[in-house]
Amino acid sequence: MVRQGVALLRRSRREHRRPLKLKNNVSQGKKAVGRVRCVPEMTSLMACWRATGFNDQGCRKEIEMFLKCATEAEMAQKATSTQTVATRDHRGYWPSETVTEMLRKIPRPY
Question: Where does residue 1 rank: exposed (0-12), middle (13-18), buried (19+ CB within 10 A)?
């Protein structure tokens, strides 16, 4: 008797499902976290500050190294952000922004 009730419950769940529809957008998902940059330079700068009592004059070399690394990282980030969005990533997948843009251009038939 219990088995019949469970089978009836499973069947009724299947019958009441909504029809499948394609949405006009794709969830953004998580952004890929890039390589963390300038950590060794930052670590050496903080160690130097601690050793000199947080005096910038004694850590001039470490400050220059960190600022140089930060400007290089910023330039690299700007260079990658200016690439077109319509290209696939290294795995061959389209970015979610591009898929959403394509889906919005094609109207749904229903």
Answer: exposed
pTM above 0.70, yes or no: no
Two tokens, residue 51: 């050793």
Look-up of token digits 């930052």: 42
Distance from C-alpha of 64 to C-alpha of 45, rounded to nearest angstrom? 10
- DSSP H or E run through 109: none
Per residue of the chain (110 residues), what is the pLDDT tens digit?
Answer: 556 655 655 655 556 667 767 777 777 766 666 678 899 999 999 999 999 999 999 999 999 999 999 999 999 888 876 655 567 766 777 777 888 888 888 877 66
